[in-house]
Structure prediction request, 236 residues.
Amino acid sequence: MDTQQLKSFAVDQGVTLVRVADLDRLRGIETNPPDLLDGFTRAVSMAVALSDAVIETIDGWPTPIYASHYSRVNALLDEAALKVSRAIEEAGFKAMPLPASQVLDTARNMSFLSHKAVAVAAGIGWQGKSLLTVSPQFGPRIRLVTVLTDAPLAPDEPLKNRCGSCTKCTEACPAGAIRNVNTETHYSSRHEALHFERCVHHVREVCAKMEHIGSSICGVCIRVCPWGGKRKKNAA
Ligand code: SF4
Ligand code: SF4
Prediction:
């Protein structure tokens, strides 16, 4: 199966960035169920860029327009993952589209697997101090989805971390949750980067106060990252 053709097809479905991860880079990550990756060799990681104008409305907590945008972008990602999976299956290979935003374990805020970990392995972006995947084109202003497959797609290389000495997200986080620790590749656990419970507590408090919020992130670390808001054309 031609990797470039599949990527172009994904872009035609509305995704902004698409890369392929070699699943050997992700063996051992937590998945639900634990054998989720068995029988698969690649993951297609796809990102849709969020609207800069919408992200700029976030000022301390999510806004109604951000909540709506978040949900519409998730729907677009799920649709694109479904169509990419169908195209892979029609070429004779196995494909499993994973939902963009479905929490299976609410206490730990865990899904089937971390789309962010897949995106980092695929070279969509690096793992920022905020734990968000930071792309060179859109910063963390992206939402992600994953398709697992056994198609022999050419894998992409991960990117080097470019957070450097930046402390913008650490300073802006209303919960004081970001530890300002850098990583070359991937944090050993989310607790290495975040006081995770502080982030979860803050996000839940915000959600309880604002009925329109359906997101699991307050959005402040997305807005303040200096890699966001610098759009480049022909990003895919
Ligand atoms: S989502 Fe909000 S509380 Fe959580 S790390 Fe980002 S800025 Fe901090
Ligand atoms: S705000 Fe700075 S430190 Fe935080 S993720 Fe973005 S580049 Fe990295």
